[in-house]
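We were asked to recover a plausible sequence for a given structure. The inputs and outputs are reproduced exactly as logged, with field labels preserved.

PROBLEM: sequence recovery
POSITIONS: 287
GIVEN STRUCTURE:
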């Protein structure tokens, strides 16, 4: 049975819950858990690949390489965080082409200035609406398939306020984008206002950041508000970092992993997850 396309998944009445992933292993485990789509977080690539904050240090090449490893390993559609497009309109076109070749189902582009930063950090800046519309039109022109969706994100709420952010989203929608993302809505009232304006016309994305500026709600509740895509982008990296703190702390204190064995896969367990027996069997076909 073929995997449903992202476009078809977004036509269903229930919201699409896409967990954050940052490499092929996290994507594989998410697929095995039964998710139907994934979100490749730029922040999580910075956290895990660089050990750095989400402040514009990650490159388009690093994201494309990570995406290619993921789409080679799993069949699920992947929504990819393309940050600002890594430059001007021409850079956006190169980013879209590279991400599409690497298997992106949806490419997210935001209107922050450079260097950009996590949408839930203070001190953001935004570019002009006209410049952003040019970048979005460039993205739409660059894609080779209409199945590759473009998601426009605005970070203007923190800089200009809610109404200007909604007006920006209106302008971006008029460019022909496939979905909208109004970042860092502060209250349930703001979330309802955004949905009242856009939910009947275009898929809206809700970004759930533990400890961030937006109230964290469940996918079902967000769906009732009108959101069609729900992401928990950085939760995976935060959970892994928390587990690693316990693991390394226990190993350093005890000199053994025995105290953590109940929270670990053993050698055979991990090989089962990543499909080692099947891979070895496939290799024997060519001997």
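RECOVERED SEQUENCE:
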């Amino acid at each position: 049975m073929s995997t449903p396309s992202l476009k078809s998944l977004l036509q269903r009445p229930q919201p699409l819950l896409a967990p954050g992933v940052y490499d092929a292993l996290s994507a594989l485990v998410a697929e095995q858990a039964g998710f139907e789509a994934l979100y490749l977080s730029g922040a999580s690539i910075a956290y895990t690949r660089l050990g750095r904050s989400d402040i514009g240090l990650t490159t388009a090449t690093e994201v494309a390489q990570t995406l290619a490893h993921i789409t080679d390993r799993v069949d699920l559609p992947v929504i990819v965080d393309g940050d600002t497009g890594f430059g001007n309109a021409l850079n956006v076109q190169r980013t879209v082409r590279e991400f599409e070749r690497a298997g992106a189902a949806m490419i997210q582009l935001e209107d922050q200035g450079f260097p950009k930063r996590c949408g839930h950090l203070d001190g953001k800046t935004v570019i002009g609406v006209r410049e952003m519309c040019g970048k979005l039109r460039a993205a739409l022109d660059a894609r080779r398939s209409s199945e590759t969706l473009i998601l426009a994100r605005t970070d203007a709420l923190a800089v200009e306020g809610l109404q200007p952010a909604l007006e920006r989203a209106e302008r971006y929608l008029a460019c022909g984008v496939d979905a909208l993302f109004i970042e860092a809505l502060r209250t349930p009232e703001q979330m309802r206002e955004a949905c009242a304006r856009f939910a009947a016309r275009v898929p809206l994305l809700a970004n759930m950041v533990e400890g961030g500026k937006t109230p964290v709600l469940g996918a079902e509740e967000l769906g009732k508000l009108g959101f069609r895509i729900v992401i928990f982008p950085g939760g995976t990296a935060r959970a892994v970092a928390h587990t690693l703190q316990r693991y390394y702390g226990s190993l350093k204190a005890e000199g053994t992993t025995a105290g953590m064995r109940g929270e670990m896969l053993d050698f055979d367990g991990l090989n089962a997850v990543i499909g080692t027996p099947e891979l070895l069997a496939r290799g024997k076909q060519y001997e």
